[in-house]
Amino acid sequence: MMEEEQMTLRRAVDWVHGARYAGQKNGLENMRALLRALGNPQDGLRFLHVAGTNGKGSVCAFLERALRECGYKTGLYTSPYLCEYAERVRVNGVPLDDETLLRLILRVKRAAEDLVARGECFPTTFELGTAIAFLAFAEAKTDWAVIEVGLGGRLDSTNVIAPRACAISAIGMDHMKTLGDTLEAIAREKAGILKHGVPAAIHPANGSVLPVLESAARACGAPLDVVEEPEILAESAHGARFRFRGETYEISLAGRHQVGNAALALAALGLVGGLDFAAVRAGLAKTRWHCRLEWVDGVLIDGAHNPQGAAVLAEYLRAHVPGRRVLLVGMMHDKQVEACAKLLAPVASRVIATRVDDPRAASAEEVAAAYPGAQTVDSLEDALALARADGGTVIACGSLYLAGAVRSLLRPGERLCL
């Protein structure tokens, strides 16, 4: 075991990542055991819980910024991170500082090692991260903590909380090996966050699986608010104005899909009740969410990594990015590379395939095979330089891991505060 006094933050984060699937087993008992060892820091916190396939991070960002604008101290737990691990745990929109993060990792490390000494399974990377977040929010005495599900819902390590309200964003085909190979099966897993007496808002795009969600809600006694489609009044490359339930709102996140995400956040906040909706309106307008159709130094960065996300990106490019388009693409091996390529290749003038720096990444050759005429450049730095030298608009996409790496190359050292 590494001596704690010798552990730097980088080595501590590496230790967290090293546990990726270490003690993975079905059920939530592993997570509950870890939290018990830490004194159940989640008890007493007020939570909003968000599941879904696409847009759940954006919904969380809208919720957090609106609550902060209402004067509350907020916590926000999301994944994955883009540039630094601390982004996964934010207090009032700011990633944890290095000293706090290291201290909390070491505290969780001691608890995890004690569990193993007693014959328990070693926690997974995501279980460790969830425990770190709950400790941080308890220590900061947050008024509200917004929690994004990591994978699925029913067996996700975040599903140990007692939320005040839930939201389920757009459900699509992703993580099929774990969640099931039909929309209905995936919806059942997402619906696992629903709880007796806890109201939940449902994204308007979920009509096809609404019977599954309604059945799950009836079974557990969760009141549902099925959100209707908002009316888009105006849209630009950088945001939109829309009408929802008799009120007009503006957002500064790009893409028509973000209007639905904002409406879902508004519905969830309505379930909480007692909020100043003038402040909520201001919070929505100020919401930032990095690497989701984000322009950085002339490069469009988007974390789209499944067919639904690729379709949104293609629609945005057709509507708002005329002229020559250069796609810089890198994806994970377990994603639907060919399905995404069918949507994105028609809007690309040139495609440069690269490899994301992750053990689960697809090779540049594997990505390029899905795009006729694509070039391969293994080094992301070289691939970005080649794309920018083309003269067309560069679009970096295919993975949030790629998106974060590209953003770090363009803005090295920048902390992603919300």
From TrEMBL:
Catalyzed reaction equations: (6S)-5,6,7,8-tetrahydrofolyl-(gamma-L-Glu)(n) + L-glutamate + ATP = (6S)-5,6,7,8-tetrahydrofolyl-(gamma-L-Glu)(n+1) + ADP + phosphate + H(+)
Give the top-level enzyme category.
ligase
Annotated signal sequence is: none
- Where's the Mur ligase C-terminal domain? 292-399
InterPro entries recorded? Folylpolyglutamate_synth (IPR001645), Folylpolyglutamate_synth_CS (IPR018109), Mur-like_cat_sf (IPR036565), Mur_ligase_C (IPR004101), Mur_ligase_C_dom_sf (IPR036615), Mur_ligase_cen (IPR013221)
Q: What is its EC number?
A: 6.3.2.17
- List, in alphabetical order, the Gene Ontology terms for molecular function in this entry: ATP binding; dihydrofolate synthase activity; metal ion binding; tetrahydrofolylpolyglutamate synthase activity
- Can you give the residue ranges of the Mur ligase central domain? 50-268
Matching PANTHER family:
DIHYDROFOLATE SYNTHETASE-RELATED, FOLYLPOLYGLUTAMATE SYNTHASE-RELATED
Could you tell me what this protein is called?
Answer: tetrahydrofolate synthase
Which species?
A: Candidatus Ornithocaccomicrobium faecavium
